[in-house]
């Protein structure tokens, strides 16, 4: 009887201090479990929060498929698969914190907007391109033939239907010289940014976040323009001047709820003086784990 009571007490204490689960989504050319990137971060989170449940999303049956799909699997289908995986994990039923790396950030935002169950509590974007990109200076595997092929296709016809369906990066290609074409033919980004048809559930679901954290890498040589990491972008009609989030129609009209989040103190802008996804474990521990994962 004493033993059973002790076990029950331990269970109650453990439950009371259980960490909120963490879900990660990698970027282009990476995969769920690379020991030099996401695998290392998963281990760092587990070391910092003993016993925490961490899910690093794998889209595909193998790590190789996961990497290939980051280039060639329709983003909407990837989001659907992520929603299926998260919804089928009983350990996420009470909600989770989400961290997206590079393109994984806008993908996890799509999950938060389209799949409110289980609930995302804190959504953290590390170098995500939330207003898209216009240019691809280099990609994760800069010498890989995929990168050269991808650049050619984006330059030729990013908004061709078959390109939109088969090339992930085309789905968040944002041409400021052809805003009308972008809004009409962008299968993914224009939709999740509520630029095609106003979807009030997207706004409502984003407003349910406890915090939305946007991390920009000040010396980013991969994302063009880097301000996209803070929802800024080129002023329509040219590709030099930048319009910040706060000066954009997206913010002023508040069609996505970003202004409301900002005014509620739930929208946070962080910057790192480094290149794309270049940060130290010390910085990550202080600014991400301690600030948003350990509460």
From TrEMBL:
This protein's record includes keyword Disulfide bond: yes
Entry similarity comment: Belongs to the palmitoyl-protein thioesterase family.
Entry superkingdom: Eukaryota
Gene Ontology BP annotations: receptor-mediated endocytosis
GO cellular component: lysosome
PANTHER family, per database record: PALMITOYL-PROTEIN THIOESTERASE 1, PALMITOYL-PROTEIN THIOESTERASE/DOLICHYLDIPHOSPHATASE 1
Catalytic activity: S-hexadecanoyl-L-cysteinyl-[protein] + H2O = L-cysteinyl-[protein] + hexadecanoate + H(+)
Name the UniProt record assigns to this protein: Palmitoyl-protein thioesterase 1
Signal peptide positions (record): 1-18
Sorted UniProt keywords: Disulfide bond, Glycoprotein, Hydrolase, Signal
Gene3D superfamilies: alpha/beta hydrolase
Class of enzymatic activity (EC top level): hydrolase
Upper taxonomic lineage: Eukaryota, Metazoa, Ecdysozoa, Arthropoda, Hexapoda
EC number: 3.1.2.22
GO molecular function annotation: palmitoyl-(protein) hydrolase activity
């Amino acid at each position: 009887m004493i033993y059973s009571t002790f076990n029950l007490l331990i269970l109650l204490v453990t439950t009371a201090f259980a960490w909120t689960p963490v879900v990660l989504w990698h970027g282009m050319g990476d995969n769920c479990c690379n020991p030099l990137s996401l695998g290392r971060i998963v281990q760092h989170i587990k070391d910092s929060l003993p016993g925490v449940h961490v899910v690093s999303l794998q889209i595909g049956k193998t790590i190789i498929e996961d990497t290939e799909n980051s280039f060639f699997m329709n983003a909407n289908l990837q989001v659907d698969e992520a929603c299926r995986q998260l919804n089928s994990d009983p350990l996420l039923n009470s909600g989770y914190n989400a961290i997206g790396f590079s393109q994984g950030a806008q993908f996890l935002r799509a999950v938060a907007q389209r799949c409110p169950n289980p609930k995302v509590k804190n959504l953290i974007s590390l170098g995500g391109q939330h207003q898209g990109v216009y240019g691809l200076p280099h990609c994760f595997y800069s010498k890989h033939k995929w990168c050269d092929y991808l650049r050619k296709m984006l330059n030729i016809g990013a908004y061709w239907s078959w390109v939109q369906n088969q090339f992930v990066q085309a789905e968040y290609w944002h041409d400021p010289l052809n805003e009308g074409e972008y809004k009409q033919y962008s299968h993914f980004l224009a939709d999740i940014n509520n630029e095609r048809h106003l979807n009030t559930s997207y706004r409502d679901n984003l407003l349910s976040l406890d915090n939305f954290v946007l991390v920009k890498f000040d010396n980013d040589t991969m994302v063009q323009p880097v301000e996209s990491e803070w929802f800024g972008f080129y002023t329509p009609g040219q590709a030099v001047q930048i319009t910040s989030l706060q000066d954009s129609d997206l913010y002023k009209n508040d069609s996505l709820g970003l202004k409301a989040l900002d005014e509620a103190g739930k929208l946070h802008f962080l910057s790192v003086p480094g290149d794309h996804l270049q940060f130290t474990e010390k910085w990550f521990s202080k600014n991400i784990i301690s600030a948003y994962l350990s509460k």
